[in-house]
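Posting for a labmate who doesn't have an account.
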Amino acid sequence: MIWKTAALLALLLATPAFAAPGVKTEAGSVRGVTEHGVSAYLGLPYAAPPVGSLRWRPPKPAKPWSGVRPATTFAPACPQTGVSMPGETPPQTSEDCLYLNVWTPPRPPKGGAPVIVWIHGGGYANGAPAMPLYSGDRLARKGVVVVTLAYRLGPLGFLAHPELSAEGGGASGNYGLMDQIAALEWVQRNIAAFGGDPGKVTIAGQSAGAMSVSLLMASPRARGLFQRAIGQSGGVFEPLQLAPGYQLAQAEKDGVAYANSVGAESLADLRALPAEELLGGQAGKVSHPVIGPGLLPQSPYDAFVAGRQNSVPILVGYNADEARSLADVSKVTATSFAADLARAWGPLPPGIVAAYPFTTDEEARRARIALETDLRFGWDMWAWARLQAKAGQPVYFYRFDQAPPFPAGVRGGWGASHFTELWYMFDHLDQEPWAWTTADRRLAEAMSSYWVNFTRTGDPNGPGLPKWPAFTTEAGNVLALGATIAPGQPPVPVPIRAFDQTYDAVRGKPFGR
């Protein structure tokens, strides 16, 4: 019997794609495809299409169907502009886009496998769960269920407007976050049918997806929907005073200006416009979360300081050269540094700029990359780790140092920049015909195992992996993920302290109080 089971598993892992077992969800039965032992169920509706009168409303339940629904192709992405990563192909889009995808392991354990729910990035303006890099097949082979989801983007996902607030009981915006919560509620009700354990759900995301994770940790409406959280290169912890547009009163004013910019004088006018026309005008100004009654009564920083966050173990971190793929520093010189920086970001506090000294042109370029890395990502991750460690929950903090062997072209010279950890943590080096080294493959194996272990137990450590010590506010313990995997760095680097001092002055109180 043991031999037959092992032989069957070996056969499954070597067999080309074939029909996956049917699964009965709350809305009806679905059938996906199985390849290499992993079953994929693609394009599953978790909510009704947010079109017509449902545009800018909380997601409604998906309409049930009869028979068996094929689940072998991805659904279109939500309407968007641009691409979420340089070099990416723009996805097919439709306003009917509230779908998710599920990958299941070859042999889920009794009681169900742990679940990773992945939230894609893209600055809340673009991105798609069908991006090949997000495929959950490799992680599923290691014993977890992987879910990837789409959520409304841009103005369709985040517009605040006085008429919408009146319609919504005093608040508007955050429809994309509502979609994420609806998907998590779907997981709670349905994932057991796919071999997943609804009591072991990890929310995970990168960039705006990680920002969403920080917001979901701060949202009372997401309480109980997940037991662990992973944030990669993104969080929302800066003082609200520096982002008045995130507060409902200003967001509503910006919403009115946006409506005028696309030729709409009322909510009825906005609902009558085709989706593609809503992506123009001042769309960028309203494509962000809103702090206000209901979903996000407090900013993540304020919720964490008050101890009101969804307090769970976290794994968070950022990449050593995040800004290298996002900012063109080729023309920055020691002489032009200040003017170039002001042109990109406006006037920055002198204390922050002084924390990144330089003398030569090359040093000026490195200083610009380092400053933007901390401004956009590094400080948020340090803040997130410190606040959650203070709450007494396990925290595992990393810095990704590996430079992938990108060939010359769009991604050439990126180094350990924004996006680059994704090939490793999803274990998808083989998607690209690049000159991957033994060190690259060793790191991909380790990172994917760390992420799976954390999803399983809340602790990334496991047999055969370098020890990852928990982060504490006193000891630091940041794990360097590169050719060498080892803890390092002081508790808080000097430049991060410069941000602390600046933000403390804005808030009028010390960090964490």
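Reply:
Got it, the structure tokens are right above this. The longest strand covers residues 196-206.
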